[in-house]
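Hi team, as promised in this morning's meeting, here are the two structures we talked about. I've kept the exact order from the run log so nobody has to guess. The first one is mostly here for context; it's the second one we should focus on when we meet again. Sequence first, then the predicted structure tokens.
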Amino acid sequence: MSVVKPSFNLLSFTGKFRVLHLTWFAFFLTFVVWFSHAPLMASIRETFDLTSQQVKIILILNVALTIPARIIIGMLVDNFGPRKVYSSLLFLSSFACIFFATADSFETLVVARFMLGFVGAGFVIGIRMISEWFPAKQVGLAEGIYGGWGNFGSAAAALTLPSLALFYGGDDGWRYAIGTTGVMIFIYSFIYYHSVTDTPEGSTYFKPNKTGGLEVTSKGDFFFYLLMNIPLYAALAVLTWKLTTLALLTSNVAVFIYIGLVCVYAFQTYKIYHVNAHVFKEPVPEVHRYKFKQVAILELAYMVTFGSELAVVSMLPLFFLDTFDISIIAAGMLASGYAFMNLVARPTGGWFSDKFGRKRTLIITMCGLAIGYFLMSQINSSWAIPAAVLVTMCCSFFVQSGEGAVFAVVPLVQRRLTGQIAGMAGAYGNVGAVCFLTVLSFVTPQIFFLVIAGSAIVTLLAVMFLDEPEGSMVEVLPDGTVQMIEVT
């Protein structure tokens, strides 16, 4: 009896491939909106006569809300499904985008940009959607295409929005350009809602048994989970501290925020205990268990991969400008190669994970990432520019392949918790960005690259403890019956 292998026809616009294309385009639009301000910041600065400190605060706040947002969105998508949550996120973000485009003061810009950090959580939703439509042997490649083509939205914004602003003309051209992106996601929110379903026909959408926190399956994992939540709040505390050093928050306000973060962490701990109190009363049956260490390792891996990408994209144009004494336009073009690698590298990481093993692929990408950033730390003015760009793009390939490899594993940990696990891993990406950018504020770019390389080596050691997903996951249907889901 022959076994028919599922085909992967990316040019198709039917079935699961139709859902893939519609979903990566939704993610693409969220990144266009999320980074719409970056290529137009010079015009925005001129309109409001912003100081360098005020520009920094806008850039910082753009990623601040994304940390908790990805956790929240992960819970919502597991409970309400990606179709409703993605459509709602696009719809609501359109108003925040237009709010930013029509801002009439620095304070309004700050509020609007802070709100737009929520659109960065859109990535989490598609991870659950794609995992519902693609089998385990294809999910890595599919998630890589979703992530890579979606992340390209930031590069697309940089390439198109300045020209669009010029087309509109006048001092307010940037407003119309950013407003146009808001109108686009407003329209697409309705298109997406009416074009997809959460699962293929006849499939069951598995939901968490309880809400309020991630389900764990042992007492040790419960405390491990609480420990891994601390960096999320620590990153927000670091952001608060940075705003205080820029004299944009008073010490009293900062103390109030610190106390608030502690209180929120305590409340979350209570909710997590409420969800997992049963693990202290009786052992969870072996068939229903999963290891939280899998989640923790993926979080660390994404912190180093996506976290370093966000940080490097933020500083790379200036690094090339200062190192090689070239024009701003030339520096931006040279640095853009780093982001362009997303189109190829992230799907490649997912495909390698499908073909050659989840753990092995992560090990290879972490090694390549460490070597790549070490070589970048050696770049100086004596280098030939093509050599510097080649090293940068090679490093970027391993960084973004690693991102694809991480999210090839996420859907295979525990199906019904995929949204929450994706949210936690995604939030760690923003934690990494905050940490690395904070390091950069104290050291030279060369030391900055070495710090990332060292972080990759530490993460490589953690990846050695990852268990290769094998066999099946057990899920309980709403009527109480048990279903086995293949993960290999």
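And here is the second protein, the one for discussion:
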Amino acid sequence: MDYDIAVIGAGPYGLSAAAHLKASGVNVRVFGEPMQFWAKKMPEGMLLRSPRVASNISDPTHIYSLEAYEAASGRPPSAPVPLETFVEYGQWFHKQLGSDLDQRNVSQIRAEQNGFTVTLNDGEETRCQRVVVATGIGPFKYKPKVFEHLDPMLASHCYEGRNIRSFSGKRVAVIGAGQSALESAALLHEAGAEVEIIAKISQLRWIGSHPWLHNLGPISTLLYSDHDVGPAGISRLVAMPKVVHRIPLKLRDKIRTRAVRPAGSKWLPERLTKVKISTGRMVTSASSKGQEVTMKLDDGSERSVDHVLMGTGYSVDIRKYEFMSPDLLSKIRLFDGYPVLGSGFCSSVPGIHFIGAPAARSFGPLLYFVAGTEFASRELTSHILRRR
């Protein structure tokens, strides 16, 4: 074996897991470009939805926090946290791993006797005993079928890294009612685009719309965790992934859905006052002619725009990970695209672990957020150490 563990992905979860494993004496190697998705696929100018306290990438001694990076780099603390700051923080964090990070991408993982073979994009192969998949949500972009046939230059997803400033002076329809859609609409408007938000829910929702619930002293502490994922009560439950893991799947799904339903941060409404918003509406058909898209809505009205930007989130399905060999995928037990995970984030294939968003169906919605790196890394490391 070349390594005990190969970590696939160098975003917050991959970097955090590697830091914990390395500190425990495990021979670990991380593969991937540090913070690639955040740096190249997120809308430029974005602000993090998570509060500062929930934006730390976990390390075992808590010395590589966001505050530590700001102090080391001379950046003044800010809230909410700008995307640029978070990307640079993650890249600074990765330097703590030194030579244990390989910026080449993985092209395939195959199961072998007593371990796995990891093939890199330049053809080199390496062998390891375990694989930790921490590659994030990049392949999981959800695009409504009504837009699938359109040219990507006319209809794109907000997680595809399009330059917001390039839409200045253009008519843009933003589809969705979650943070990604609403913030994209604000950024587009501020860049000089003519923007309309089209959302199927009857009224937009805003995170923290009941601030008095956060100012009840000890009672608020019982209702909300520092992660601030989900409404009162559910927020506290979400902060206990091991408890969530024991809840029957049907109820667990209800908790997950309620905790991450489409909503925007409380600092967005002021930025959207001059943006046209159409709620309770769905696009039933879309066609293009030249450089224009014509959409028909369910109320019979039409819209003609220069671009459609889909802020429609993502839908986890690990079968979209191209580096997983078909034989390996066929042996991983799934429910609706999510891997079924046990203790230590173990899949049904011994030695294959999934952390981050693919683990949210098993351990709850905290695993969708950076705040989940603390639990994921400690649980993963503890499990592996017990079995060494």
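Starting points for discussion:
The chain has twelve helices and 17 strands.
Residues 3-140+315-386 form a domain with the FAD/NAD(P)-binding domain fold (CATH 3.50.50.60).
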